[in-house]
Amino acid sequence: MENFHELLINRRSIRRYTPQPVDADQVRQIIEAALMAPSSKSVRPWQFVVIEDKEMLEKLSHCKSNYAASVASAPLAIVVTADITRSDAWIEDASIAAILMQLQAQDFGLGSCWVEVRERYGDDGVPAEEYVREALGIPEEFAVLCIVTIGHKDEERKPVNPDKLLWEKVHLGCWKQAAE
Ligand SMILES: Cc1cc2nc3c(=O)[nH]c(=O)nc-3n(C[C@H](O)[C@H](O)[C@H](O)COP(=O)(O)O)c2cc1C
Prior knowledge:
Blueprint: H1 4-10, H2 24-35, E1 46-51, H3 54-60, H4 70-73, E2 76-83, H5 90-107, E3 111-116, H6 128-136, E4 142-151
Antiparallel strand pairs: 1-2, 2-4, 3-4
Flavin mononucleotide binds at residues 12-13, 15, 67, 70, 113-116, 157.
């Protein structure tokens, strides 16, 4: 376990993975991270679909026109869904669960990437959500927020440079307009 701040500095989106499967115990703990996520009113509207089947991963990588190729490269993908009839904060709840899985993966030295599904479309104009829902048999009341891809890294990414953080986006005490 690296120091938490180091973990944040080193987490970068990884889109290329080796074929090595993710250890079953690590998969379990990554899912546990999601199931431990805080949620509005503790409703926990999320449900997750864990996919390791190569053919299904390949199929899901075509859910939208761009930026979904990492799904085909990954040995593991977790589809993050939430019951929109149960919470008006489902996007927040599902997002927190997704990032916790990414951070748990990082803690194992694995790479991960968030692949957005909500409000994204395929070349044919079909909503990516519809495509994923149909491929996996997800009920209508469940929105599909994203697919988190996870695996052993097959690319190097530079850590975040803390000297280049956007401090101008932080206002101390009250909102201050940026100087022209
Ligand atoms: C809400 C959200 C949607 C994203 N969608 C995608 C995506 O569809 N495909 C992808 O490859 N990366 C996606 N990303 C990853 C971002 O591109 C990435 O976090 C950003 O470029 C910063 O890079 P870093 O994660 O390496 O720091 C998404 C990230 C977030 C938070």
